[in-house]
Design a protein that fits this description.
It contains 24 helices and 7 strands. The chain has 499 residues and is an alpha/beta fold. A 5-stranded parallel sheet has the order 4-5-6-1-7, sandwiched between helices. The protein is elongated.
Length: 499
């Protein structure tokens, strides 16, 4: 009976009813999947079009994984539950809106705590693991702005509803910078001028924080997504004040999604209240895929290789995704990049099929820096020592996960050598040998130089072959063949006759 009442409430809820189709999760997998190559015959298109399609790969190609379904389902249900608790037709909700509006002009730390809290989701992980990509693609299915006309039952004559708002954390981690970013994002979405209103910009940060919360409540924001929470912008006093602001927004009834690096989000782990409130809708952790993961072998790797624009099939088959893992370390971003770069290289060389040599040349080329390759090899080879120079990578965590150490010196401990020595002394030799076999034999500097020379020779031979083929297609009198010589001889004969 209670479930029937809730369904009835959804169907007539002025804020939720327009979103019911968008927030359904039973067919999320098919709705979120997309590719610019769908229905396109790449054999018949021009090379210019092929390059344009490769430009669209990383932004517009999306293949859902089990993490996609987990995250998307949680996110949509969080938005749905948030609106159910803010039904503007209920007297208690209207009273709550008035009670919040009455706090205008007060400092953030002076406010009373209301009885209920909205839900919050935490999404953490290293850069390049697809956190933002997953959330943005899920939100793409939901209309961001809904304009409502007069609704006497809900108590408004006009309302501009914002179902979700994406905001990056301020680069300096300050509360003032975050508040301004929220107002700017809101202005861009609905055309308001909150970020330039003198009545708001002259306020102190603590008073402005209260006003921003009221504005978000007025526009019935379904979820506020705050991304790029890093250790360098969310540590110390800045992080403490921002954490208080997050809790206040939840208390105002605004659902949150907090995204960033694990070291940045760890600032929310100091107090049990913060942990409980900020993870109430789930705490999801993104890591680079392992080559044994279901999502890697069945979703990511097959779909990345399937994004193929060359006229003839590739000369190799990477059935289990091991080759792609070797050149990406399990990062979705790097996987797309190496596949993209290798196909561009093949097009530039005039080749009509992708080879493993193209992939190797792309990986060793300008699209990957030395640090990129070091990060990739750290995960592909399961060698934490290679990761130790990246301050935003959980070296100790991965060392334990891969079974290479039992106890590891803390990353924050003085002197990185202690960590390196502990890891090095604790390597499981079979694991290292397996990872090395996966990544291929280690090459000496001489072997690398020989390979580079071979690549240059191959490129030169391909260009020579291409020119020879073009020359053969020309007639004898074409200036690119003997036409130039005939023209000059004829000119000399005419000049000699004139003399």
């Amino acid at each position: 009976m209670e479930e029937d009442d809730e369904v009835s409430q959804e169907n007539t809820h002025p804020l939720l009813e327009p979103l019911l189709e968008s927030l359904r999760v039973d067919d999320l997998e098919s709705r979120i999947r997309r590719s610019p190559l769908n229905g396109l015959d790449v054999v018949a298109i021009s090379n210019e079009r092929r390059h344009l399609l490769l430009d669209q790969m990383q932004e517009q190609l999306f293949e859902p994984t089990t993490m996609t379904l987990n995250l998307g389902t949680r996110l949509f249900r969080m938005i749905r539950r948030g609106y159910l608790s803010r039904d503007p037709r209920k007297l208690s909700v209207r009273k709550g809106n008035l009670a919040l509006a009455a706090q205008s002009g007060r400092n953030l730390t002076e406010l009373p705590w209301f009885q209920s809290y909205a839900k919050c989701m935490r999404i953490s992980g290293e850069t390049g693991t697809g956190k933002t990509y997953e959330v943005v693609n899920a939100l793409r299915l939901v209309p961001q702005v809904i304009v409502h006309s007069e609704n006497k039952e809900a108590g408004w004559s006009h309302l501009v509803q914002v179902t979700w708002l994406y905001v990056p954390m301020a680069h300096d981690g300050s509360l003032g910078g975050l508040l301004l970013s929220i107002l700017v994002a809101l202005d861009e979405v609905i055309g308001t001028k909150y970020s330039t209103q003198r009545s708001l910009t002259r306020l102190s940060n603590e008073k402005l924080a209260v006003q921003v919360g009221i504005i978000l409540r007025v526009h019935a924001v379904g979820a506020l997504i705050i991304d790029e929470i890093q250790e360098r912008n969310f540590a110390g006093g800045h992080g403490s004040l921002a954490a208080l602001f997050f809790l206040r927004l939840l208390n105002f009834g605004i659902p949150l999604v907090l995204m960033g690096n694990p070291f940045g989000l760890s600032a929310l782990d100091r107090f049990s209240q913060d942990v409980r409130r900020t993870g109430s809708a789930g705490s999801l952790d993104f890591e680079p895929y392992d080559f044994t993961d279901f999502d890697w072998g069945n979703c990511i790797a097959p779909r990345v290789w399937a994004y193929y624009v060359l006229p003839k099939p590739a000369t190799f088959i990477d059935e289990d995704g091991m080759l792609l893992f070797r050149y990406s370390g399990g990062f979705r971003d790097y996987a797309c990049r190496v596949c993209n770069s290798a196909q561009r290289l093949a097009l530039d060389l005039g080749d009509d099929a992708l080879t493993e040599e193209h992939v190797e040349m792309a990986y060793q080329g300008d699209d990957f820096s030395v640090k990129d390759r070091q990060l990739i090899q750290g995960f592909a080879l399961r060698e934490p020592i290679r990761l130790n120079k990246f301050e935003d990578v959980r070296v100790s965590h991965y060392a334990r996960k891969w079974g290479l150490v039992t106890t590891v010196t803390s990353r924050a401990a003085p002197g990185a050598q202690g960590l390196e020595a502990t890891i090095e002394d604790s390597f499981d030799q079979s694991t290292v040998e397996d990872a090395a076999a996966l990544a291929g034999p280690t090459r000496t500097q001489h072997q690398k130089e020989v390979a580079a020379a071979k690549r240059m020779a191959t490129q030169k031979a391909n260009l020579t072959k291409k020119r020879r083929s073009a020359k053969e297609k020309c007639g004898d009198d074409d200036i690119r063949n003997d036409g130039l010589k005939s023209f000059l001889i004829t000119g000399f004969d005419a000049l000699r006759g004139a003399i």
